[in-house]
Design a protein that fits this description.
heterodimer; A: alpha/beta; Oxidized Rhodanese, domain 1; 6 helices; B: Glutaredoxin; five-stranded mixed sheet; two-stranded antiparallel ribbon; about 40% helix; globular
Chain lengths: ~150, ~170
């Protein structure tokens, strides 16, 4: 019991220090797209531009087919990379961003990426809601993935 | 190559390319290694410059973590406490999945540990089933086989119980 309390206390202290102001749970529900919805959208119709805004090491292991790497959005150089990637995307295009590094409420990247692209004027922007991590919520669900 | 052979050759090439693209797009397995799997051997250079290899014949806890992962940082003091408690009966190896060594080193200055830590990469991640979410902890028995893996939010009680059970074997 005490250990659980101390772990929760440490998490409460550590999380703000690690995350940008405005965490993933601050992203409006209306902007979120569920993994099943995105997987269905990838099967037919016009494909959205997909940006992985998390960590390169995980992008290199596996990512959604067609996803471009543009992160990590939780860091200044990652935001710069995101802006560079966004510069060549039409602001009216459907764009989906995702991370999936860790549980949603702890993700240091998606909220910063969403804010950045919103401020740049993207009007068809969605954020892939990954509750636990990319492995559990996308790959293990059998959705398409590309290694490397 | 006459026209018919070339047409057939082109069709075979297109079919092969299509098959390759399908294979790339097929779901890839990315679950933690199942219990009973022989844990893949590896050797890395630790952050302190010394070689770090997966020990054999010992109970090993392999911790994939990163400086940007809040639940990972929370677990570090607990893992250090486990190492202190169990001493030589439990080996712990930390694998930092940060994109840069500097970030991992900085995190360990703030949350020091008493076991070796080495940098991970996509290759090592794939060796262990695909590290596509952190934290991920793998408990490996003295026989070199995976006892259990955990991915996601850290559960100290479950980990402690599994270690105690493994040590009693």
């Amino acid at each position: 019991m005490i250990r659980a309390f101390l772990a929760a206390l440490l998490l409460a202290i550590v999380t703000p220090a690690l995350a940008q102001p405005g965490s993933a749970p601050t992203i409006p529900q209306s902007v979120l797209i569920q993994p099943g919805e995105l997987a269905a959208a990838l099967k037919s119709g016009p494909k959205p531009v997909i940006l992985q805004v998390g960590f390169k090491i995980m992008y290199d292991e596996a990512h959604i087919p067609g996803a471009l790497y543009a992160g990590p959005a939780g860091k200044d150089d990652g935001i710069a990379a995101l802006k560079m990637a966004a510069a060549s995307i039409d602001k009216g295009n459907q764009v989906v961003i995702y991370c999936g590094c860790c549980p949603w409420e702890h993700c240091p990247n998606v909220a910063a990426a969403w804010r950045t692209l919103k401020e740049l004027g993207f009007t068809q922007l969605k954020v892939l809601y990954i509750a636990n991590n990319f492995g559990a919520d996308w790959v293990e669900k059998g959705f398409p993935v590309v290694k490397g | 190559m006459d026209g018919r052979l070339k047409a057939g050759h082109d069709m075979n090439m297109k079919t092969a390319l299509f098959a390759a693209l399908i294979c790339l797009a097929l779901p890839a397995s990315a679950a933690p290694l199942p219990s009973g799997t022989v844990a893949p051997q590896f050797t890395r250079t630790g952050l302190d410059g010394r070689q770090v290899s997966l020990p054999r014949g010992k109970l090993v806890l392999l911790d994939f973590w990163a400086s940007w992962c809040a639940p990972c940082i929370v677990e570090l003091p607990h893992l250090a406490a486990l190492k202190k408690r169990h001493s030589d009966r439990l080996e712990i190896i930390g694998i930092a999945m940060d994109d840069s060594k500097a970030a991992a080193v900085d995190a360990l200055k703030r949350f020091p540990v008493n076991y070796p830590v080495a940098m991970g990469d996509a290759a090592l991640g794939k060796l262990y089933g695909g590290i596509l979410g952190l934290p991920e902890i793998t408990l490996i028995g003295r026989d070199g086989k995976v006892i259990k893996s955990w991915r996601g939010d850290f559960r100290a009680d479950a980990l402690d119980a599994a270690i105690e059970t493994a040590l009693r074997r």
